[in-house]
């Protein structure tokens, strides 16, 4: 029974020690380590990107590898049937700008589907970067 009485008196004491509307003088001060932790957390939060990075290689595997193959060589049955471009050739990479690749992604030349309405601009740009990463010497 003394435990119940102690718990009640402790909570009553705590309730009385906090004012209803805290003023500057009565508001509890944060310790130096708590302030540093708070500042560090806010700095980390501010350094995070506003949105997650787009995974270009994953998008390539999902949308392009069926015809262009994982390595970009277009040595798949679908690639052969639809005359898919070998994206890994250095000569092709040299002759096509990033805008050319982006246009192909957006418009879908030949049998390739258009991705202008299916992928966001960030995803399309990530695909351009992924295609550039397929270059073989």
UniProtKB/TrEMBL annotation:
Q: Name one GO molecular function term.
A: metal ion binding
The record ties this protein, via PROSITE patterns, to: CYTC (PS51007)
- SUPFAM superfamilies cross-referenced by the UniProt entry: Cytochrome c
Q: InterPro entries annotated for this entry?
A: Cyt_c-like_dom, Cyt_c-like_dom_sf
Q: Which keywords does UniProt give here?
A: Heme, Iron, Metal-binding
Which Pfam families did the record assign?
Cytochrome_CBB3
Can you tell which superkingdom this protein's organism belongs to? Bacteria
Annotated Cytochrome c domain residues = 51-135
What name does the UniProt record give this protein? Cytochrome c
